[in-house]
């Protein structure tokens, strides 16, 4: 849901901070992602404030939105980063992130990615299998260094969220089962080039109930006790990301302060630096996707379609997770209508909303698809030969182009 202070209506037009979305659409074209810089900063600061009592490092999960300007904005605030691939590590480093504040996840890191991470001097690599651990030891040995490693534990806690984004259940591919941990500890004990510095988990995304974190953290605390008794000096206790945001005003997210209140007393028991990996919490509501209505049509059954110039190639979340995104007219109408808001892609799943009550917009008018900042642009693609859109960041009255729109030439440039 938008912060109406950062996305106000001014003279009847929706703005991002001090800049009219209509003006931005005219200048940069549509579809267009527009991000409020101050929203990112506010969300990061509110997370920091909530957990201020804990010795902690927040590592923004860049997979949510990895535009260099977004990483740079958060790095300037002192934020660390969680990356999931060599490509994300490259982005973070290019944006000027401090390697000592970067952690790397990934259930299938390649040898090249592991080598890149170790030689970049990042804070730690989270390992998810015995085989990967052996490879890390071998690569660190070849490089003549000690790799700082965290074990991602699968706590077997099934968080209530969309099944595609629950990750802490033992039937999922993520993490190492509790039953294998004794073997992992003895293996690491015998390794020359691996330093076990962290225990880690990530139980899923958009989790409303603090109990799931509580239960999983308790399990991780048990693992911590075992690791310590095996002689490992664990310095970091990483509880992952997954903190929720409000997409649908009917389903308001649990406030972050509530998570802090429930979790701080438990996490203090770890006696380590606590790591957090929020992605969505920081990015989701910072951004709107501005799209123009191309056509309206009504079918034989009287069903109304609003066909817009953005689609599942720009924001795949409704198609993939049936997720709700609010849709508002950039210039609101007095009258409303019920319509399907659909994109130009040749898939029936290419919709933003079905049977939604929206402003009675006409052809050529602008709509804003809200809460598009996390897992929006980053999951975009060129299916149907679509050009990935431009992105703009607004800070007060200033708007900066932070990603140019793709060109036709770029669509074929790698095809040799
Ligand atoms: N840490 C790890 C290891 C993760 O895998 C993720 C997200 C995060 C942190 C950040 O989670 P967040 O705080 O953003 O919930 N595309 C889906 C979400 C996939 C999340 C994948 N992992 C969506 O659009 O809902």
TrEMBL record:
Single GO molecular-function term?
Answer: pyridoxal phosphate binding
- Which Pfam families does its entry note? Orn_Arg_deC_N
Q: Which PROSITE patterns match?
A: ODR_DC_2_2
Catalytic EC class: lyase
- Provide one Gene Ontology biological process annotation: lysine biosynthetic process via diaminopimelate
User: For this protein, what reaction is catalysed?
Assistant: meso-2,6-diaminopimelate + H(+) = L-lysine + CO2
Q: Which domain of life is it from?
A: Bacteria
List, for all copies, the residue spans of the domain called Orn/DAP/Arg decarboxylase 2 N-terminal: 39-284
Question: Do the record's keywords include Amino-acid biosynthesis?
Answer: yes
Signal peptide range: none
Its Enzyme Commission number(s) read 4.1.1.20
**Known NCBIfam families for this protein?**
lysA
Q: What is this protein called?
A: Diaminopimelate decarboxylase
Q: Which gene encodes it?
A: lysA
